[in-house]
Design goal:
The protein is mainly α. The chain has 22 helices and 4 strands. The strands form 2 sheets. The chain has a two-stranded antiparallel ribbon with strand order 1-2. A two-stranded antiparallel sheet has the order 3-4.
Length: 477
């Protein structure tokens, strides 16, 4: 990342305290493009970009916030030198915390050990990738000079900031939003990055769900109406929906599906933070098991809160043209004819489905990411957003395979009252009825359109998410 600094501006010979002003002055002159003795945010941005060290607007602003002592919006040489000296002290502490045997060098085994203490498990090969990205002399160890030069302009202040690229998710919603939430740092919370990232994910989710809504409605129709006696395939299902209600009917129920994104996301992230606090001691990093439990409980809490909207979405999707004039009309008719309890029909299988979904999703995601890092990563330990999206799509698919029968039973319970001549069965009764009349394949009716929407949903989410992050000024990780 900072090869240029190592080889030219910050030569190895210039590492003594007495020579630091000369090193800092050389670098300051490179950044002071108009030679007026001060560096403003524009010059810092342009200078670092020309040196091959683009940090992003938020990181550069953080350097200014910390270094600009007199708050005039510019860094003079004294302020610049003080910032770098103070930053070096913090990086020295981070270096010493990694250098377990105090030999002045960081080795792969020490990185593995240090990250384990932070609740992150990586292999020796992955640790070597971290070393390779910092190692300037090819020794596969990192000394203080290499470490200092690599993190010279990175405004992180501790080990937690240094290993941020090991975040679990991308913040992208592909329509079956039960995945374990991401974590936000204190800096992100204070700067407002967290709500920008959630908003970007929410807009991406809304566009993605709307784009794939016809497949989602087809899935629901096949789940409710599919049987051995009344087989509904993909082509026949679309034809039937268009014939009954026109092209617009393909998006029936999508409004509710989009509306519930905001409250579901908000409750899930709030609950996740609360469960993390309950399961970990203050200052302790959350491990994989605690993360899974916290994520599953947060998903259950969010689902409990928005579940009535899930029922409304299903009723609207299955309903015939003219049966409901809208969301509120649907809710009013359910209360009138079935009572408030109808809003939680299918809640038990829905809750049970969260555990296998979240568990398999997290396990497969980490397995796929580790496999890619061990076998395909060459120059970086950051897999990149496309690899993470691929891992996320595959892990979500595996999670859906495990939990789909419960999702199908949930949907049928939600819609039972709308299907004439159908007895009102509980979860166990429905399982028995489906298996006896349709066999095991009956538990997976509608899974084909469900899988068909994964790739377009991921692609659309990614494009919208990246554009929204750019528009909202979300820092790239």
């Amino acid at each position: 990342m900072l090869r240029w600094l190592r080889g030219f501006v910050l030569p190895a010979a210039a590492c003594q305290d007495a020579e630091r002003p000369t090193r800092y002055e050389t670098l300051f002159q490179q950044l002071d493009r108009n030679r007026d003795g001060v560096v403003d945010i524009g010059e810092l941005h342009e200078g670092l970009r020309n040196l091959g060290i683009p940090l992003g607007q938020d990181a550069e602003e953080k350097i200014f916030t910390t270094g600009d002592i007199n708050k005039d919006g510019k860094l003079d040489f004294e302020e610049f030198m003080k910032y770098l000296k103070d930053h070096e002290k913090k990086m020295k502490l981070a270096f010493k915390s990694l250098d377990k045997n105090n030999d002045g060098k960081i080795e792969a085994s020490e990185i593995v050990q240090s990250l384990q203490m932070l609740g992150l498990t990586i292999s020796e090969q992955q640790a070597e990738l971290i070393l390779r990205s910092i190692d300037a002399d090819g020794t596969m160890t990192v000394d203080w000079n290499e470490w200092r030069d690599y993190f010279l302009f990175n405004p992180v202040t501790d080990i937690e900031g240094i290993i941020r690229f090991w975040k679990h998710s991308t913040g992208i919603d592909i329509g079956d939003s039960l995945a374990i939430p991401d974590e936000f740092t204190e800096d992100e919370k204070k700067s407002g990055q967290w709500w920008r990232q959630l908003l970007a994910g929410g807009v991406a989710g809304a566009v993605s769900r709307t784009s794939t809504a016809p497949l989602d409605r087809l899935k629901v129709m096949m789940q409710v109406h599919g049987s051995k006696s009344d087989k509904m395939n993909i082509y026949g299902g679309f034809r039937q929906m268009v014939k009954e209600g026109g092209i617009r009917s393909l998006w029936r129920g999508n409004g509710t599906n989009v509306i519930k994104i905001a409250p579901e996301t908000a409750v899930k992230f709030w609950a996740y933070e609360q469960y993390k606090k309950l399961l970990t001691e203050e200052g302790q990093k959350i491990g994989t098991f605690e993360r899974f439990i916290s994520g599953s409980m947060a998903g259950a809490t969010a689902q409990t809160f928005i579940y009535p909207m899930e029922v409304l979405k299903t009723r609207l999707a299955v309903g015939k043209t003219g049966q409901y004039s809208g969301l509120f009309d649907c809710a009013k008719k359910i209360v009138k004819h079935e009572g408030m309890g109808a809003f939680y029909k299918g809640y038990v299988p829905n809750l049970l489905g969260i555990i296998p979904y979240a568990g398999i999703d997290l396990a497969v995601y980490e397995l796929l990411k580790s496999y890619w890092l061990d076998n395909f990563a060459k120059d970086s330990v950051n897999p990149g957003v496309m690899v993470l999206l691929g891992c996320g799509a595959l892990s979500s698919t595996c999670g859906q395979l495990a939990s789909y029968p419960l999702a199908l039973v949930r949907t049928r319970m939600q819609a039972q009252a709308m299907v004439e001549g159908t007895p009102q069965l509980n979860m166990v009764g429905l399982f028995r009825r489906i298996i006896s009349k349709e066999g095991i394949p009956g538990l997976y009716r509608g899974i084909t359109p469900n899988f068909m929407k994964v790739l377009p949903a991921v692609g659309i989410s990614y494009v919208v998410y990246e554009n929204m992050k750019q528009t909202l000024g979300v820092t790239q990780k």
